[in-house]
Structures are given as structure tokens and as C-alpha cells.
Design goal:
Length: 281
């Protein structure tokens, strides 16, 4: 999609993909993406975006005056995974150029009570904690021993727990997190829950071609691969409404075939038809 480190003309981005041409958060109507722009100019309006030592990016929400609220672009960032949209971060130079920083995941958000708005008045701001997709985008859980990269439960839990419990974990909403470590754990928890849930939902049958899985894993489970029907990437947190479990051939077809667009539309209908277990509080 975008080349890491490459500088783009912002107007050219909107000419191609759509979305608001001003402001820090752009939500193209006809493309499954959210474009966010950071830059030194935002400090005039009380925004302070920065990388933390732990590798997370702190991004201030939109709203120039008064307390920030969850509407518009702020809601788009918070709910990007549930809405099946990729989140792309750019650094704007104030002269119409935007350098691509990377694809991100919204891990959590904080309400910061001491940020000043454009008039210099103290107000409560929404500050998102973003993680680079590559930090959470693997197809399997990190190796045992990296406690700060482990999800809430051990790997076996996702396969043995009641399906309802895994579904509930798969549709957890982005929320406040006390630390970056906790935010990362929550993202991994949700991502792994989605990955396992769709495979358990498929019950050994490809949700694309309706054929049995081609082989079994060393653990004796039917081998199927999670595929996101709207986003270009399959890594990171998702939502069961947008993910199917498919055989390797159907997965390649969904990404690379001449009829990939039509095939993904069919898979989208299948995902909507299959749905997911309703959340039980």
C-alpha cells in the first residue's frame, strides 16, 4: 500500500483514496482505512504526539477547543479494528508533504486532564496509544519467555475455553490501559482470540471453497488460515465479523487472483452470514 519512509503529497493521497484534506485524522469514505497525520504544527492547538521509550506512539485526538469527545476521527481511530479499517500514520512537514511512518494498531487510549486547547485553557484530551503493526501482527503468539509480549491467557486457553468465552475476548473494545505493557497484552489477547475463534467456528471446513482443511497440524487440528476480508493486511487485531478461516489456496486467491476483489466480496457475505457468538456480559 504505502512505502515505509516515503514522502507523499498529502493532496495526492486524498485524490487517490479520498478523505478529509485538512486536520489530523482523515476517514476516506470508500476505502477501508484511516489516515492520521502528526506534525510539529499541532502543538499550537495543544497537541503533543511523541514516541515513548517502550516503542508506542502517543497520538492526540482531534478537537481544537474544549474537552475532546469520541466522535468523528476519534471514534474512527478507537474502532478501526472493529470496523475493518487499516490505520496509517504519516508525519506532515507543514508544506503539504507527508512521510509514511507505518501501519499502526490502536491499543488503548487515555483521558489526559491537563492538556491545553487552542485558547490556552486546560481541558481533558483523548490521547491514543498506537503500536506498530509488526509488533502485534504475527500469525502465532510470541515465544514463551517474553512476558511483556504474552496475551492475557496461555496459548492453550484459546483452544480449550468455551467458544463463547473466546468470542467475548475477540470482540473486546479498545479501552484505557494503565501501561503500554498492558495495552500490548490486550491487543495480543484480542488478536489471538479472533485467530482461534474463526478456526474453531469453521470446524475444519474452509469458509471459502467449503472443502475440508488440506491437512492437520502437529497438534492434530485442521489447518486453516485466518483472512481479513476488508483490510489489505491479515495481521494485528481484528473482529470476527470481518475474518474468515480459509485453506491456503483460497487465501492466496483472496490476495493474488485476478478475481480477488469478487472473491473477497463473496467471503464478506460468508463472514456476515456466519457471524459470531453474541457477547454475553
Amino acid at each position: 500500500m504505502f512505502e515505509l519512509g516515503r514522502t507523499y503529497k498529502r493532496q495526492a493521497l486524498h485524490d487517490q483514496y479520498g478523505g478529509q484534506r485538512q486536520g489530523g485524522i482523515s476517514t476516506p469514505k470508500n476505502n477501508p482505512m484511516v489516515l492520521i497525520f502528526t506534525g510539529a504544527g499541532g502543538e499550537h492547538w495543544g497537541y503533543k504526539d511523541e514516541w515513548e521509550p517502550d516503542g508506542t506512539f502517543r497520538y492526540s485526538g482531534e478537537g481544537q477547543l474544549g474537552p475532546m469527545q469520541f466522535k468523528g476521527g476519534n471514534t474512527a481511530i478507537r474502532d478501526h479494528a472493529a470496523n475493518g479499517k487499516d490505520l496509517y500514520l504519516f508525519e506532515a512537514d507543514g508544506r503539504g508533504n507527508a512521510r509514511f511512518i507505518g501501519q499502526m494498531v490502536c491499543a488503548s487510549f487515555d483521558h489526559v486532564p491537563s492538556m491545553r486547547d487552542g485558547d490556552g485553557n486546560l481541558r481533558t484530551a483523548i490521547v491514543f496509544r498506537l503500536l506498530p503493526l509488526e509488533d502485534v501482527g504475527g500469525e502465532t503468539l510470541p515465544a514463551v519467555g517474553h512476558d511483556d509480549l504474552q496475551p492475557v491467557h496461555p496459548p492453550s486457553w484459546y483452544w480449550k475455553a468455551p467458544l463463547q468465552a473466546v468470542a467475548n475476548a475477540a470482540i473486546l473494545q479498545t479501552s484505557n490501559a494503565a501501561t503500554a505493557k498492558e495495552a500490548r497484552r490486550r491487543v495480543l489477547h484480542r488478536s489471538e482470540a479472533v485467530r482461534v475463534f474463526v478456526q474453531r467456528r469453521a470446524n475444519g471446513v474452509c469458509e471459502g471453497c467449503q472443502q475440508p482443511a488440506p491437512f492437520a497440524t502437529p497438534a492434530g487440528r485442521p489447518y486453516l488460515e485466518p483472512h481479513h476480508v476488508r483490510r489489505l493486511s491479515d495481521g494485528g487485531p481484528d473482529h470476527p465479523a470481518w475474518v474468515v478461516a480459509v485453506c491456503p489456496v483460497c487465501h492466496k486467491r483472496a490476495h493474488h487472483a485476478s478475481d480477488a476483489k469478487q472473491f473477497n466480496l463473496m467471503l464478506t457475505r460468508a463472514a456476515n452470514r456466519l457471524g459470531f457468538v453474541e457477547h454475553v456480559p
